[in-house]
Amino acid sequence: MSAKIINGKQIAETLLLEIKQELVSLQTIHQRPPTLAVILLGEDPASAIYVRNKRRACEQVGIRSLSYNLPDTTTQAELLALIAQLNQDDTVDGILVQSPLPEQIEEAAVIAQIDASKDVDGFHPYNIGRLAVREPTLRSCTPFGVIHLLRHCNIELKGLDAVVVGVSNHVGRPMVLELLLAGCTVTACHRHTKDLAANIARADLVVAAAGKAGLIKGEWIKLGAIVVDIGINRMADGGLCGDVDYAVASTRAGWITPVPGGVGPMTVATLMRNTLQAFRQHVGA
Question: Known catalytic residue: 245?
């Protein structure tokens, strides 16, 4: 069999268009656009690309983007002070601090400093907790983007046996919570899992979020399963690949996301959606 390709780029463009149209209607009522403050520390090339993509998406949909490009020598106190300033600014709806951060910065402290109502990345413990108790507010962009992808393809999630590979705070753990909320039976696999292949082989839905190229062998995939590859890994030739052996997996799966062009665009689109949601909450729309 040959898997149906889930075109994340196309689905993300549809979502961005919906956001733009909603913003046009909101601007007839409210006097300011939604505003996203993006903080970048240092000159990491990958981070610079991610930030540029987010700023372009803001321009595309009509969100005002504020840029704070700080040196990698910025102290934690200086960064926390800037976040505190943005928390108090009533014209700022979303605050995003691009990771990875320099070694002198404690990421958990940075996330906790952001006002939960402006946490458009969906990383704040309050927002993760709301998702855990089935009352989500601002949701982690990549996991919620995955849910949007699957729903756009009319894939029924209730009752599926799902396996999430990788349990990071930003992706794997909130992904587990999103799938539970959607009605899946969920298994979380990590470096201590004894038999990854056996877990993958019984899964109706596999979400790969380990960040290790080729970790999941194509022959492990159950016939007809749904495969969502969140992993992004740089190859020796400069190209990108996911955590799943795409060539073989695509001959066994029913649905599969490519890398690149699968989940990545949805992360940015969901960030725009979260910024719009934060704006609506702040202006009472």
Answer: no
